[in-house]
Amino acid sequence: MTNYFSSNFKLGVLGGGQLGRMLLSETQKFDIYTVILDGSKNAPCAEICNEFYQGDLMDYQTVYNFGKKVDLLTIEIEHVNIEALLKLEKEGLKIYPQPSVLQIIQHKGKQKDFFQENNIPTSNYKRFNSINDLKRSKAEFPFVWKTAQFGYDGTGVKVIKKNTDLDSLPDVDCIVEDLIPFKNELAVIVARNKKGETKTYPVVEMEFHPTANQVEYVICPARINSAIAKKAQKIALQVADAFQFIGLLAVEMFQTNDGEILVNEVAPRTHNSGHYSIEASYTNQFEQHLRAILNLPLGDTKSKVAGIMVNLVGEEGYSGNVVYQNMEEILKIDGVTPHIYGKKETRPFRKMGHVTIVNEDVNEARKIAEIVKKTIRVISKKAKAKNE
Q1: For 302-337, what is each residue's pLDDT tens digit?
Q2: What domains appear along the chain, each with residue ranges and CATH number?
C-alpha cells in the first residue's frame, strides 16, 4: 500500500479555486504533499499549497506536463482537457474521477443521454447543435435552455418563455429540458472508492437566489419526509454505481409536486451543497474526497448537528478590492463560522466565501442563517454605487 502521509507521494489537483483551498486544509491535516495547477497566479490555493503552477486547464500540453509531475491526479473543476487525461491514464497515472466519466459529465447532453441509458429518472430533454436548430424545432414554451458545456453557478441556464428570448442566447451546443414544477431542489453527495465502498451524505435542501440562479442556502437535513430522503439517496447511489465513479459525486435533484425524484445534473467533485459538512459532519466532504481517491476506508457521513450554509457573494454595484462588512457582528452569534476564499477582488454575485450555521434545531439554524445573510456584506472600497 502506498504511504501517502509525510512521504514523497505527490497529489496533483487540477484547479486552485475555493474547493482546492478547502481540500488543502485536509491534505495539510494528513501531511499529503499537494501540487496545484490553475489559470490564475492569484488563485486561492496559490500561496498555501506545496507546489503551484500557473497554466490553462483546457490546454493539452499544459495538463499533460502537469500530470507527469505527480503520482495521482484529481480535479476541483470539471472543465479540464480530457484528451491529456486519457493519455496520462493510458501511461499509467491514476486519475480520479476517471477521465472517461469526466468526459460524459462535462457535457450536459452526454450526461442526460447517460441518465436515460441507465434508467436514471430525469426530465425530458432534447439536444441541439445550434440556436438555428433550436429555432427550427419549434420547441414548446416554456422550457429550460442549458449550454452543453462550461456552464457554472447559474451561468448558461435560462428559462425561455417566448421566441424573442432565444435571440439573447449564444450560438452553442445546448440542451432543452421540460420546465419541471417542483416542490424542492435537493442534493445528495455520494463517496465511492476503488474497492466499491460507497457512502451517502444526508439529503440537503437548496434555496436559490431568484435572479442570479445561485444557491443562497443549503439546509441539512432537508425538511422532507424519510421516504423521500431514502428515495433520493437510493437514486444518488444508482448514479454513482452506473458511472463506477471513484471520488465524490454531487447529485442534484428535483422533488416534484407528486413526490417523484428526478436527477437534474451531477458534479464530479466536492460541491457547494456539501460545505456545511466542515462544521456539521463527522467526516467533511473534503476529507472524504481524499479518502475516496486514495482508496482509504470511507468516513462517517452522519451529521453531528443540523447545518446550514449561506453563500457569501459579491454585492451588486460593487467591484474592486473586497471588504467584508459586519464580520464582527456575525461572529458574536453562537454556531456561526465564516469561510473566506482568499479572492482579493469582488464583483457582483462572485462567490467570495460562505458561512456555516450549526444548531441542534434545523429551523432555528435557518432563522440564524437569515440574520447572517442580512448582516454581512461583501463590498469594495470604492464609494457606494449610484444605483444603490
Answers
A1: 999 999 999 999 999 999 999 999 999 999 999 999
A2: 10-95 (3.40.50.20), 124-178 (3.30.1490.20), 182-380 (3.30.470.20)
Beta-carbon contacts of residue 32 (< 8 Å; ≥ 6 apart)? 4, 5, 9, 11, 290
> pLDDT tens digits, residue range 118-137?
999 999 999 999 988 998 88
* Residue of 205, 235, 200, 250 lying closest to 223 (CA atoms): 205
User: What would the DSSP string read from start to end of 286-345?
Assistant: HHHHHHHHTTPPPPP--BSSEEEEEEEEPPTT--EEEEEETHHHHHTSTTEEEEE----E
Collapse the DSSP code of 101 into the 3-class scheme (helix H, G, I; strand E, B; otherwise coil) and give the result. helix
Which pTM value belongs to this model? 0.94
3-state secondary structure of 350: coil
Instruction: Name the β-bridge partners of 318.
Output: none
Residue type, 81: N
Q: Is 165 exposed, middle or buried (0-12, 13-18, 19+ CB in 10 A)?
A: middle
